[in-house]
Write a structure and sequence with these properties.
The complex is a heterodimer of chains A (about 350) and B (about 325). With about 350 residues, chain A is of the alpha/beta class. Helices cover about 45% and strands about 10% of the residues of chain A. Chain A has helices at about 15-20, 25-50, 65-70, 85-90, 95-105, 135-150, 170-180, 215, 230-245, 270-280, 285-295, 300-320; strands at about 5, 80, 155-160, 185-190, 195, 200, 220-225, 250-255. In chain B, strand 2, helix 2 (about 50-55) and strand 3 (about 60) form a beta-alpha-beta unit. The relative contact order of chain B is 0.12. Classes of the chains: A alpha/beta (about 350), B alpha/beta (about 325).
Amino acid sequence: MAIAREAEPAGSLTEVKETGLDREDLLGIYRNMLVTRGIEERGHILYKQGKIPGSFYTGRGNEAASVAIGTAMAPDDVGTPLHRDLGVHITRGLEPWRIFAQYMGRVDGPMRGRDGNIHLADLRLGTIAMVSHLPAMLPVAVGAALAFRIREERRVAVGWFGEGASARGDTHEAMTLAGVRKLPVVFVCDNNQWAYSTPSYLEYATEHVADRAAAYGFEGVVVDGTDVLAVYREAKRAIEKARAGHGPTLLECQTLRMEGHAVHDDAFYVPKELFERWAERDPIERFRAWLREHADLEEDEEAELTAEVKKLLNDAAKRAEESPFPDPATVTEGVYASQEDLETPHHK
Amino acid sequence: MSARAATEKTYLQAISDALRQEMRRDKRVFVIGEDVGVYGGAFKVTLGFQEEFGPWRVLDAPLAETAIVGACTGAALMGMRPVAEMQFADFISCGWDQLVTVAAKQFYRAGTPVPLVVRLPSGGGFSGGPFHSQNPESSFAHIPGLKCVCPATPEDAKGLLISAIEDPNPVLFFEHKHLYRRIKAAVPDDRYTTPIGKARIDREGDDATVVTWGAMVYTAAEAAQQVDASVEIVDLRSVLPWDRETVLASVRKTSKALVLHEDTRTAGFGAEIAATIAEEAFEDLDAPVKRIAAPDTPVPFSPPLEKAFIPQVDDVVAGLRELLAY
């Protein structure tokens, strides 16, 4: 039995404008979705060319949810996006060339070669880098929200997790603490139905992950994660609710992970029909159709945008390849911070 | 130093007063833990804090160590100076991932400091049993990015806690429960810091060196009085980082080293110290490095068993005599 509220799909342009987005914003969202997918598609190529060490993860199918939530966050808000949420980084302004540099283990990646793939973030852009232990970043997001609450700042933290990681205790503890203290945090569940090869029904026994929110004393909302404007509306609502002091929300974005867990995985265990069905709801195609129908997206405008993104990515990949590898002599540096390292905007 | 005002305080009062002083001078410092608010903490370290600082700077947390430590990391990244209390050091196992996976690696990975302190009431000696008596510092001394502090005296407890709060890294502050009310000494009234990573010579001597920390400093001191030799006691004060120079200088002087700790023997921090002495001061040694530690068992409950577990003065006396006679 579902307990969480099931969100309506996005409506007309008039309705969308009521959520605070104008046509320029809409095209910006569309562009960020194209950049997100473009980076990951190129990442695949770079990986196959042997230019990316380690592994490579993508969030194909999750571009709408990640970009929408990144867009709904205010500049001073912070978040802990995960490996399916590249769109958050793009929306927050992380430059694509630095992302490629990260993938390739170069010094200009946000982690300067000390961590790889999508374990990236830039605190100046309000993002905190994920670790592999999921959902270890949820308690961290709750702590950021706690800092805002103690200082009585009107800022919000957003913490991401997957439906697989919903099984772990961190989820429960983070939501418990956030619930009892009514902290300004939004929990986003990227429910892409597969935790590596394990299907949802082996991860949780409720109908929705968001049904659990009621048990923690806050609202759960389920939204179609391929509907960028519906996700935006719900994320905005949840974030502003948190900002106003009304506590957390658990927002579950339903998608399908359209590729394997990582580049090595062909996802043979996902039924082919499932891929086919969800391919019809590709978030970028859906939004393009919506923009054509409701916002007069013209072909030449679209071609211009596509060309701009293509150039951005070409330049970014090239610039990243020019970035040097870290100097091996620096391997032992920077294990411990010094007082000077506290001279950051967050610590003043 | 002669004009410096000081007050007799227990080890526990020194910790409590230092924390209160820091909260008064720095609004970024807050306390979070189980029962630290209304109740004042299981050991009353934060007694009266909530009345003074309010419920949002002295937070009674749900029984959720992962959330407590993780929230401290998030708050630290946002510019706060969290001080978490584990009700007993043993419970840090429930927050291991947040400390080791998230907080310890954050600066190396992302270049963003995580200035947090976790206070860990540790150690045995009063039938706390397997889950209220452990000394888990060796486990964390293996984790790059963390600092592990183990004060033995009230003066150091204050100075090291202030250093820990000032430090831009995650610091584990192991406070020994058996010292809380048993040990009382003069503590300077002014604000001062004791550097993390600098050992203290508890007692000077020429014939043998005992390297130890925490409550074992007192066990070593009693033992030293019972042997007919001049024993130097090096109180490490912190095990990560640890003061290799002071240890090696002492061993080079005495040529005999005994490493003593309350934690279990195998892969305990004493092994690191013994290995370092063997590597760096082999030529100066007149005897093999000796280790005295708890046996490799959980901490037993019943008094005679616990006494057999925790190194006693007699064990150290016997060890010293053996070493001196070599």
